[in-house]
Amino acid sequence: MRKQFLILVCVCITSISWSQVHEIGMSFGGVNYIGDVGKTTYLSPNAFGGGIFYKYNLNPRVALRGGISYYSIEADDADATNGIRKNRGYSFNNAINELAIGVEFNFFEYNIASTTKTYTPYILLELAGIMYKSPKTDLGNGQFAYQNKKAISIPFGIGFKSKLTQRIALAIESKVSYTFKDDLDYTSKDFPSLNFGGNSNDWYVFTGISLVYTFGRPACFAEFR
């Protein structure tokens, strides 16, 4: 009996080591920019965003995650409460392509195969590379030629996920990204008409829902905890 028990434990450990839980999913929702143009509200989605992602669950509390996302951002000084911005009357729209990797921490143990541990709030922290448009050449009459520019951002946020079916879960997430750059709104000292001040870097915020498909659960994951 003891020998059989040890064999079972070894099989379980091997299964967990080589066949951890995987998740793939897609997210969609709203995006807002925070910077030198328009409103300064931190959570006010006014443009579309979405992406696809993959998660590797190290255990019921921690998952590694990576994803590719597209975010549209826009702002208009006409929506600002600041009188100076309203009088300036500037507006813009841009697009951000993001490639991110990071980690997700669950507040509770999460196991979609379980009948009791099927939901949890979580927090996340990522490191991302982004690409967006930046002005390159002044063509005159307020027109510019643009180029692709690359930068680093640090997304972090909170979410809540819950099981829908045996394989599918639903998540609600809000993620704030700090960019180290001040030109998502095309601010530039190289062009007088775009040099409208600002001394802080830009942010963008994604708030949305995700559908997640889970696969690859090891046989002993739920039983030995």
TrEMBL record:
Occurrences of domain DUF6089 (ranges): 3-222
Matches recorded under InterPro entries: DUF6089 (IPR045743), OMP/PagP_B-barrel (IPR011250)
Gene3D superfamilies per record: 2.40.160.20
Protein name: DUF6089 domain-containing protein
Species this chain originates from: Polaribacter pacificus
Taxonomic lineage of the native organism: Bacteria, Pseudomonadati, Bacteroidota, Flavobacteriia, Flavobacteriales
